Structure to design on (189 residues):
């Protein structure tokens, strides 16, 4: 049975006429670009991507999810999600949580790029994992493998901690904080 395949980086056609293994990339350039990305492969290889645009609703700032062509997207409708290749060139992209991937959002926890004392204590209390600086520049997104559950908002040591693992999307900046490039497992407490 023939199965259509595309390059994992650009989604271009693959040369399937060569004997041997089925290639993952259409060129050396695409292979190198895929592996150099700071965004973990576990996220890049999932078709759970959206773009986003800033908006104001009810007097509050928010981020509206979009499909690559600008049509509305939904964090609960998989037919509106895309591959990483389709959104990678956009500066504002997000990942729809679920399928075992979740995120802890720490707002206003960085001062001049350094975690507050409360934020550092929190970071020390969880497994080392891929972490990004949020679009605001003063927050962190900690990515984890975790079961799907209802989102929570709590205050820990004066720090706002939001945990989501389904029915939401989180912005992805690719601006890594710390050295981990792997997504760790977070056991529910």
């Amino acid at each position: 049975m023939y199965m259509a395949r595309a390059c994992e980086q650009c989604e271009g056609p693959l040369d399937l006429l060569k004997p041997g293994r089925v290639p993952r990339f259409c060129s050396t350039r695409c292979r190198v670009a895929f592996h150099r990305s700071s965004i973990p492969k576990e996220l890049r290889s999932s078709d759970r991507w959206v773009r986003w645009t800033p908006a104001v609703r009810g007097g509050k700032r928010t981020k509206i999810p979009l499909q690559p062509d600008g049509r509305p997207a939904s964090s609960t409708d998989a037919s509106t999600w895309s591959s990483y290749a389709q959104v990678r060139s956009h500066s504002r992209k997000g990942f729809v949580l679920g399928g075992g991937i979740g995120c802890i959002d720490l707002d206003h926890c960085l001062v001049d790029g350094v975690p507050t004392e409360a934020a550092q204590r929190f970071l020390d209390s969880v497994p080392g994992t891929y972490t990004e600086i949020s679009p605001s520049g003063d927050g962190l997104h900690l990515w984890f493998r975790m079961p799907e559950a209802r989102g929570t908002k709590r205050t820990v040591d004066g720090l706002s901690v939001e945990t989501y693992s389904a029915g939401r999307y989180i912005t992805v900046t690719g601006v890594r904080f710390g050295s981990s490039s792997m997504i760790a497992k977070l056991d529910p407490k």
User: Anything to note?
Assistant: The chain has a mean pLDDT of 89. The chain has two domains: 1-36, 38-189. The CA atoms of residues 66 and 72 lie 5 Å apart. The chain has four helices and twelve strands.
